[in-house]
Amino acid sequence: MKIVVIIPTYNEKDNTPRMIEALARVFSDIKPHKMHLLYIDGNSPDGTADVIRKYQKKYDWLHVIVETKKEGLGKAYAKGMAYAMQELRADWLLEFDGDFQHPPESISELVKYTTSYDYILGSRYIKGGSIPKEWSLERKLLSVLGNLVARVLLILPNIHDVTGGFKLSRVKGFMDQFDFDKLLSKSFAYKIHLLYYMVQKGARVIEIPFIFGNRTSGESKIIKNELFETLRVIFLLQQRIVKFGVTGFIGYLVNAIFLQLLSSSGELLAWLVSTELAIISNFTINNLWTFRSEKISGVGKLLFKFLQFNLTSSGGLIIQSVLGFVVVTYLNVPRQLALPIIIGFIVLPYNYFMYTKVIWKEKAPNQK
Ligand code: GDD
Ligand code: MN
User: Fold this and answer.
1) Domains in the chain, start-ordered, CATH in brackets?
2) In testing the pocket of ligand 1, which one of 64, 136, 188, 219 has its CB within 8 Å of the most ligand atoms?
3) Segment 228-261, tens digit of pLDDT
4) d(CA 162, ligand 2 centre) in Å
5) pTM for this one?
6) Span 33-43, pLDDT tens digits
7) Residue 232 C-alpha to ligand 2 middle, in angstroms?
8) Dihedral angle computed from the Cα positions of residues 147, 149, 154 and 160, in that order, rounded to the nearest 10 degrees
9) CA 178–ligand 2 middle distance (angstroms)
10) CB distance 78 to 42 below 8 Å
């Protein structure tokens, strides 16, 4: 297996020679993997790239790409990962910092898990891991809270460090299928996108604790508005769920309004017609907005999918009624408690699942 360690650098001249030598020692202990190191330098004015080039004479596993200008961490990784996969034929990509905040010795620890996992995360927020104790209270809070908010909004309760920058990703079936033109951020927040992608792809994930060291030389390039950038990426990733929620709410309004308007034409008819109108509203808005990228068109296809959508919706109603009946009669759950719980935890997830996996199922890239 070939593992390519990717280090983006910007003005890391002092750290680089020590880093290359430290990795040379680590690499020689990692058998039977082939270890390579790829630097992506943002055309550092301090001459980091020249230092790396000098070491290329000594180590044949050392590679460097020099960008025309510094364009952000996400951009640097997008270039580096593409190069590592296409030119260096990497089986694994290891994201690593060039400033010794990620301990080189921890690499061998991560590598141990490549036989049974696809995504191996260095984690600061599990037992054995930590953030620098030298950090100010403000910096610590920002890091802990930022990570917590991201975990909650991305609904990733099982991953404790979602913003960390030290991780190992499997190429085959995972990173080789990622479209880097669609990477949502040019800066640090790209990490959230890749993490979310790996989890969605069904990667087997493990977290390994590591001690996030203090920077001893040079300075951090993380920018102040990174928090907003992270929130922007999270919103884009969760857009579908937000739109799905809004569409459902509009459907509810349609249902309620027509139920009122049609009340004079008889109770049963009012319920039937207003419910069907809500279904039509949901189908139309989801098709044109929520699942725009998988839009259904053509009369035949639309009719077929609309029928399927009606069946799915009826399925939801049946699940809701049966479950409601059972928990109220046999478990004595109060009715007004059972309804929101069943809708929130069963019916909505069921609908979302059916929409994404059946009705607006994503087309394979070659079918698009
Ligand atoms: N080429 C390139 N271009 N390299 C960059 C750029 C850029 O725009 N920005 C930063 N780098 C390089 C740095 O030289 C360093 O080697 C590495 O990327 C990490 O940058 P730092 O500036 O040291 O980041 P940090 O320590 O604030 O952030 C680290 O921790 C975060 C979590 O707290 C990184 O690991 C982040 O990825 C992580 O999210
Ligand atoms: Mn750093």
Assistant:
1) 2-237 (3.90.550.10), 239-359 (no CATH)
2) 188
3) 899 999 999 999 999 999 999 999 999 999 999 9
4) 16
5) 0.83
6) 999 999 999 99
7) 22
8) 40
9) 26
10) no
